[in-house]
Amino acid sequence: MFCFLLLGAFFPQAQVSFEAKVSKKRLGINERLRIDFEMNENGDNFSPPAFSNFQVVSGPQQSVSRSWVNGVQSFSKTYTYFLTPKTKGKIILGQAEVTINGEVYKTTPVEIEVTEAVKKPNDPNNIDYLIDDNIHLVAEISKTNPYLNEGITVVYKLYFRNPISVSDVSELESPSYGDFWSHLINIPRAEINMRGSYKGEPYNEVIWRKAVLYPQKTGNLILPPLTLNLNLSVPSNRRDLFGRRILTQSQKTITTGQNTIRVKPHPEKNKPENFSGAVGQFDFDVILDKDALKASESFRAKIKVKGNGNLKLFNLPTISVPNTLEVYEPEHDEQVKITLSGMQGTIEDSYTIIPQFQGKYPIPSIQFSYFDPKTETYRTQTSQDLIVDVFDGPTAAVQGTYSNGVTSKQVVAATNENAFRFIKLNTTLSPINQQSFWMSYRFWVLLLVPILLLIAAYIVKLFVLDKTEDASSVKQRRAQQLAKKYLSSAKKEFHNQTRFYEALERALHNYLKAKLNIETTELSKSKIESLLFQKKVAKHTALEFVTVVENCEIARYAPGSSVNIQGDYEKASSLIAQIDRQL
Question: How many CB atoms lie within 10 A of CB 256?
Fold first, then answer.
């Protein structure tokens, strides 16, 4: 023992050390990190690393410690920082530098892993219990176990109370709603409600965000967290000359955490065959603007649904009329308002119909089925049988068939006296005379017929083909209007890549559902390609359509990928118009 004491007396100085120590190497994005740069000799020109992926909450805080134990002096000098991470992933904290006794010393780089926000941050080295007990962020969900396509609301609320005051708020992590049809309700300005309540206790309340969601698939769907970064004013234990507490500025990262929505499928029992996915409470009707008109005049038939539910997410039933009525593609109109109660309003398809012959035309009743989540039952509404009286026009003597191919009773009847008026009952026979062909009747006929045919062809081109081209132009415009109708929702989202491609993919799927009478579950890319080939759509057109769908999937699930929003929108519009003409 005596020898060791002698050695300690001759060699009192230990080796110089300069280290970086962290409170933890794995933390959530809403937690804080403490890092200490500690040296055992007094140094100068301390230089911290660049905290490029962190936000410095406080620091540097300098502390110095000297002690004598059994005649041996020990020294410690520490620079302390408190940091909040800005991004997730593995982050390297660089080297700090200090000059000790004329030599430069550096710390070893430290690797930190930043994960998703945690529900209850736990940092024993730097927890402000006063903040944790008096500030909360919650996501209030109206229903956690809805049916498929049943609307739910999510309201994000920030609660805080004295002695905490909030000076600034910014979103660090925004939730995405990939498995939902979503709509954010605009909040012009965040206002503080002084009479809020959290778990039965009075709090100041700030509504940060409101969202209306309609789940698009069944099962357990994850609702990602909302994470906010707060600048706070917190009273300290120090007081000024007048005895008032001195406020200190602090930062806090707070999150709602993940929530799980358990989506139930629609029951199979008593499910109507014509159910197309409508969920809510609706009224249904078919309305004619005229029930008596002349032939060649037009009338409009409106299929109308009014109520509260997923009005934008299902197709209306189609009208069935006799084939002697010319029916044009419907014009779709939506008067829908979205509030915390969900979608409310009216949607309608308006058909323009032109009769060709006079008579009385029956418009058969139409059924509309929907699922009511309040009573958990299916309901079916049936429109009235309607009759259109067409007068003052040509008559027809054929049995009418409806546009869906079902043969019906005779809808137009001709009078007996006119039914066979084109048949001649009295004939005159004459003997055949052998005459010379030259200058004969046959000679002049064969000579003049080609000339007359040329004149007739010119007239046909002038008065018929040109009009046909005009009709083709009309169809072209109709096809373009149809494309604009389906792509209107995507056009509104040009500023947001993810929402744009979700709306564009949904528009392409809805168009195919309407044209090919298939369900959304059948719309795989191979299925789309084979169906378009079966419908005699040009091969290159079908392949381009599938390519646009693939672009939507890539843009949705790989947000960092290179995209051309304007180009994809114009391509989708052109393809819908082409396919509509070919079908």
Answer: 25
> How many angstroms separate the CA atoms of 390 and 412, rounded?
10
State the residue range of the domain holding 320: 280-419
Strands (E), 330-464: 331-339, 342-355, 359-363, 367-372, 377-382, 386-391
Q: Can you tell me the distance from the alpha carbon of 322 to that of 303, in angstroms, rounded to the nearest whole number?
A: 17
Residue 100 CA to residue 77 CA, distance in Å, equals 12
Residue 43 burial (C-beta neighbours within 10 Å; 0-12, 13-18, 19+): buried
First and final C-alpha spacing in the chain: 101
pLDDT-derived band at 431 (thresholds 50, 70, 90) equals low
Q: Is 400 exposed, middle or buried (0-12, 13-18, 19+ CB in 10 A)?
A: buried
Asked if residue 364 has a cis previous peptide bond (ω within 30° of 0), the answer is: no
Number of domains composing the chain: 4
Confidence of residue 146 (pLDDT cuts 50, 70, 90): very high
Of 192, 254, 261, 196, give the one whose Cα is nearest residue 227: 254
CB 225 within 8 A of CB 255: yes
Same domain, 413 and 290: yes
Domain boundary among 383, 404, 419: 419
Select from 354, 353, 423, 358 the least CA-distant residue to 396.
358
> Residue 351 and residue 332: Cα distance in Å, rounded?
9
Kindly provide the residue ranges of all beta strands, DSSP E only, lying in 393-525, ordered along the sequence. none
Phi-psi region of 546 (alpha: psi -120 to 50; beta: other; left: phi over 0): alpha
Most confident range, picked from 263-277, 422-436, 561-575 = 263-277
Q: How confident is the model at residue 306 (pLDDT cuts 50, 70, 90)?
A: very high
Rounded Cα gap, residues 364 and 525, in angstroms: 37
- Rounded CA-CA distance 179/223 in Å is 9
The pLDDT tens digits for 117-135 are 876 555 433 435 567 778 8
**With contact defined as beta carbons under 8 Å apart, do 137 and 164 qualify?**
no
Q: 199: which 2 tokens?
A: 């778990």
Separation in Å, CA 22 to CA 43, 79, 88, 112:
20, 12, 17, 9
Do residues 145 and 257 share a domain?
yes
Radius of gyration of the chain (CA): 39
pTM above the 0.85 mark? no
CA separation, residue 272 to residues 125, 307, 313, 316 (Å): 62, 20, 18, 15
Residue 302, in any domain of the structure? yes
Give the separation between CA 86 and CA 84, rounded to whole angstroms. Answer: 7
| Residue 164, both tokens | 């905490």
Task: Name 500's Cβ contacts closer than 8 Å, sequence gap at least 6.
Answer: 490, 493, 494, 555, 565, 569
Residues 285 and 257 in one domain: no
